[in-house]
Every structure is written in C-alpha cells, then in structure tokens.
Amino acid sequence: MNKDRLLSAARQELCRHGFEGTTLRGVAHRAGVDARLVSYYFAGKEQLCSEAVRLPWDSPAAGRAALAAALTHRPSAVRLSGALGDTLGVMYRGAGARDPDLVAAATASVLLGLTLLSCAGVPALDPPGPGTTAAVSRYLGSLSEGPSS
To answer: Mean pLDDT over all residues of the chain?
Structure first.
C-alpha cells in the first residue's frame, strides 16, 4: 500500500509542480511516509514519475499528471506521445479507420487538450460534462468510420 500512496502522491505533485518541480521529499511528505521509503521502491525520480504516469491510467489524476510531466520534461513528453500514438493507432487500425494514424493523432490531441484544460481548472471539464463527452464521442466516431461503400 505504501507504493500506491507514493504513486498517488507523485501524481499530485506532478500536477502541481511539473516534473522539474517535483521532489522525492515532496512526494514522501504528501504520502505521509519517510523520504527513505521512496528509495526503497524506486531507483529515483525518473522511475517514480514514469510509473506514476504509465498507461493505462487508472484515474483522471494519472492523465493530468502525465500531461503536467510532459509539459516540463522532454523525455516524459516523448513517452506520452509514443504511448498514446501506439495505443490509439492499434485501436483505430483494428477498427478499420480510413486513416488510422491521422485519427490517432486527432484523438490524442483531443484527449490532451481536455486534460490540459482540466489541469487549468476549467470546471466544465473536471470531470467532463455529459455534453462534452457526447460531442467528443461523436467527433471521434466520425473520424474512425471505415471507408464508405
């Protein structure tokens, strides 16, 4: 359970401070554990933050943390972009989308945009309202339709 608390605390710290501003001591303090415990579970800040934002995200906080880390840390941005592109590309190729790479890029843009707005505290998107969810679903559905006969 301590490891889960540390990962949760790391997500909160990443959202608040980005990768560069997140410290192992800050994560330990937020988790309510001794700072030495962080080193027991993780080789360092890079590993802790990587695990905190690893796909699949188990909560909206994990998505926000991944975006916050990506905004302030180039390796996190590369990991996030690659993971989203790979995951979405496989999904859309399997669904027979007209242009799976384009649809994957558009989907990733929408998801990252909504997450960024959520990080900025836009209340209608935290959590997304029913209208937002329906509109995004319709838009993504129209992009992913296979070739018309």
So the answer is: 79
Do 92 and 50 belong together in one domain? no
What lies within 8 Å, CB to CB, of 74 at 6+ separation is none
Q: Which uninterrupted H or E stretch holds 125?
A: none
For 124-143, what is each residue's pLDDT tens digit? 554 555 565 566 666 556 65
Angle 10-15-20 from CA coordinates, rounded to 5°: 75
Q: Which two tokens stand for residue 9?
A: 């605390």
The domain in which residue 40 lies consists of 1-57
Instruction: Find, among 43, 49, 54, 57, the residue nearest to 18 by Cα.
Output: 49
The CA distance from 11 to 48, in Å, is: 10
Q: Within 10 Å of residue 131's Cβ, how many Cβ atoms?
A: 9
Q: What is the pTM of this model?
A: 0.61
